[in-house]
Amino acid sequence: MALPHHKFSATVLSLVLLLSLSPSETQSKLLTRCQLAKELLRHDFPRSYLSNWVCLVESESGRSTSKSMQLPNQSVSYGLFQINSKNWCRKGRRGGICNIKCEEFLNDEISDDSRCAMQIFNRHGFQAWPGWMAKCRGRTLPDVSRC
Length: 147
Hints:
Layout: H1 5-20, H2 33-42, H3 50-61, E1 68-70, E2 76-78, E3 83-84, H4 111-124, H5 130-135
Helix pairs in contact: 2-3
């Protein structure tokens, strides 16, 4: 049984709208360990701390650029580095210490994430990240020497 013309047109229009509302800038990636290590180096993370940064990202976001997590205090952590909305960014508008919209941390372009993560690190060190504290501090770190 064929769809009436108006239902078919509405279905096609809905599909076209859905596809057009999915811009490439909101694409997310699940990076491999070596892809992550190379990206971090490309964004000027020091090689001497590379294993710590890889461990941090693995423990915080599982290497996913699109992870967001609501916390009990009603703040939300965003992106690879799980940057928190309480102090570092603002939902829906530029703001926070990093002066950025939190949603900018959810795409696969990690320049802004990297800049903000380095600001956090420069103020508080790796201790600012609960995942690093729980899974990386004082533990064997990922081997990224062959990446």
